[in-house]
Amino acid sequence: MKVIDSLENFKTLELMEKANKIHLKRHGKDITLERAVFLSWWCDKGDCAFCYMSTQKPKIKDPLKARRSINSILAEAELCKRLGWNIEFLSGGYGSFSTSEIKKIASKIYEITSHPVWLNTGISTNLAEYGEEIVGITGAVEVVNPKLHDKICPSKSLEDIENMLAMAGDLGFKKAITIILGLGETPHDLEYLFEMIRDGGIQRITFYSLNPHPGTPYENQPSPASLYYAGIVAAARITFPDLEIICGTWIDNLANIGPLILSGANGLTKFPLFKMFGTRYGKRVEEEVFWSGRNLKGTFSDYNLLLDNSSTSPELDSYVKRYIDKCLNNKSLSE
Ligand code: SF4
């Protein structure tokens, strides 16, 4: 595959240039900010080698207590609406909420944001219960090389994920996958990935770079190199011009953003929103997008939008206030 050869021969700039041209022609200049809204800190599986939740499972005595309150989840949705952030998906470990509970939460978020919700809530065969509140289903593939996958994520088989996505497509939902770079994959594994995207009719992909969590086997591993990450994204954009590509980068890797955008990212994710809002880190995201020549949809710094409560339902007021106070605290610390 030509893009893999280019990647292996360090022709990353060539890949990025080509990807950028394709991207601008097909997708224009808008860059979205995406927020994964977590439902719980509990995961029944708890054995994926890289995952923060795998370090928490032994510490959680009562899984019900690891669930977030519904109003806190809805308050987060309200703030995403105010700030122009997309809700990337509702996310949670296995076994934290039932299908009917997830449906109820998604329906309320749909009411708040007027956008149906993506789900990333594990492998499920109950998708037929969902309706207009859901737009798409995400398969958390993480690593697509089958041997590596079985080793790193022993309890969620690729086959089951693919079957779920096929069912999602049959029911009329969109389909997405998530991939983490830096788990030991090589550029050649793009062959597996591109086959999955093509054969599975995947419309959206979220790339993350490894965030080495203490207590996991990856704690002393580096996150992937910025140009490797950008080269992979460029290869995906060149191969799939219409694919929606979201790229995750943590607060300590904000300099990745410009290269990722020039490689074909549509959106950015994985930020600790309330910790970064109004700070130099949030403003740095805005600067990265600006100097990529793109238009940022949403804000990391506009307090007027944050405080605009014109359409918030009163029962969420106290929950919304908690998040706003965190953001205002950032402001006072930076003055
Ligand atoms: S299934 Fe998901 S939440 Fe659970 S351990 Fe694996 S990656 Fe973490």
Order of helices and strands: HHEHHEHEEHHEHEHEHEHHEHH
Supply the number of helical segments.
14
Mean of all residue-level pLDDT scores: 94
CATH H level: which superfamily? Aldolase class I
Low-confidence stretches: none
Query: At the third CATH level, what is the topology name?
Result: TIM Barrel
The proportion of strand residues reads: 15-25%
Q: What profile does the largest beta sheet have?
A: 8 strands, parallel, barrel
CATH architecture descriptor text: Alpha-Beta Barrel
Number of domains: 1
Distance between the termini: 52 Å
InterPro entries: Aldolase_TIM, BATS_dom, Biotin_synth/BioAB, Elp3/MiaA/NifB-like_rSAM, rSAM, rSAM_sf
Keywords: 4Fe-4S, Iron, Iron-sulfur, Metal-binding, S-adenosyl-L-methionine
Pfam families: Radical_SAM
Cofactor: [2Fe-2S] cluster; [4Fe-4S] cluster
Q: What brief labels describe this structure?
A:
about 325 residues, alpha/beta, TIM Barrel, 9 strands, binds iron/sulfur cluster
Structure description:
The protein has 14 helices and nine strands. The protein is an alpha/beta fold. It has a single domain, classed as TIM Barrel, CATH 3.20.20.70. The protein has an eight-stranded parallel barrel with strand order 1-2-3-4-5-6-7-8, surrounded by four helices. Helix 2 packs across helix 9 (226-239). The chain is globular. The termini are far apart. The site of iron/sulfur cluster has 13 residues, from helix 3.
